[in-house]
Amino acid sequence: MKLTLLVAALPAASTALPTWPWTKPHSKPLKYPGLDVLAKRAGLLYFGTAIDNVVLDNKQYISIARNRSEFGQVTPANGQKWMYIEPTQGVFNYTLGDQITVPATRAGQLKRCHNFVWHNQLPEWLTSANWTKPALVKVLENHIKHEARHYYNDCYAWDVVNEAFDDDAAASLRKDIWLDTIGAEYIELAFKFARKYTRPGTKLYYNDYAIESVNNKSSKVAAMVKDFKKRGVPIDGVGLQAHYTVGRAPSYDAQMAAHKLFSRLGVETALTELDVRLQLPDNSTAQALQAQVYADSTKACLDADDCVGVTVWDFWDPVSWVPDTFPGYGNADIWDANFTKKPAYYAISDLLRSYD
Ligand code: 9MR
């Protein structure tokens, strides 16, 4: 994949801030280069991680999370979601988001911002009211306006709409407050508002899971992207979340086909939430298979024409979202509970080195 320098794409008015989007190249050769150093050498824009607020007081965790050699990019796992940002209508609270983004900026890490619109983690004032369509459109615009302005200089990319397609066989649009009240138009409205209020050059993404191979859902997403491109609705990227299970993950070839499905429509792709869960208790065989899935997925991003980077959905097993959602599964990340790098870490590292 080729790295395109965003700065060049910015309009003249923005050249006063040449360092945006706040990442800098690694300067000196390191004895033990981390994943981001190796990813950049291999041609990616970044290797990153999600970070959640609940673990910010763990010094060992933070020393890895803020190590720019390992992670050149950070996504707030929760802090920028609607229920935290606008807990009361019209009252905005950026505390949790800032706890993740401000130190990332200081550490020279790129930020993917997550998310403007989702069916989940919405505040009760929003979900419990009976909105008319015009009233809810106003709520949507106002939320995007405030959050986009607050994080104006922060975000390499925004996940503008998250998980709008459902898991039924037809991959219909998900029935939620947005679809029920505004109709399918809410998606393009969100993208238009995002373009209106985010910094020019910010990459606007549609982000979803189970679209990492060519299937009904990814085909629906591709049809939407194609339609948006045709009608001039702003969209720049598709995020393949990549929440995998050992034994059921799409192959390298299947993932390559998914990247291609989107990139041929003129959008970039990224693995935005990569993790690979295991049935517990795990063992070395399962960990070796897990390592292979991490490596295959990273390789597909490296080989795809327009995949810009890989983000793991946290790097430390104890903070993974997996055990709560999939009882009996876990250990999905690349550092174990003792902060020891797992085979998955070394598989990614070795793969990236082989592209140097
Ligand atoms: O990691 C997040 C977890 O802490 C939250 O409890 C959960 C709520 O649904 O959301 C998790 O992050 C999700 C992300 O925002 C969107 N894609 C799926 C992720 C895992 O559920």
Automatic annotation (TrEMBL):
Q: Which UniProt keywords apply?
A: Carbohydrate metabolism, Glycosidase, Hydrolase, Polysaccharide degradation, Secreted, Signal, Xylan degradation
Pathway the protein takes part in? Glycan degradation; xylan degradation
Q: Which GO terms describe its biological process?
A: xylan catabolic process
Q: Which GO terms describe its molecular function?
A: endo-1,4-beta-xylanase activity
**What is the protein's name according to its record?**
Beta-xylanase
Q: Name one Pfam family in it.
A: Glyco_hydro_10
Chain ranges passing through the membrane: none
Record-listed E.C. numbers:
3.2.1.8
Q: What class of enzyme is it?
A: hydrolase
Q: Which family does it belong to?
A: Belongs to the glycosyl hydrolase 10 (cellulase F) family.
May I have one GO cellular component term? extracellular region
Reaction catalysed? Endohydrolysis of (1->4)-beta-D-xylosidic linkages in xylans
Predominant location? secreted
Stretches assigned to the GH10 domain: 38-351
Tell me where in or outside the cell this protein is found.
Secreted
InterPro entries per UniProt: GH, GH10, GH10_dom
Signal peptide, first to last residue:
1-16
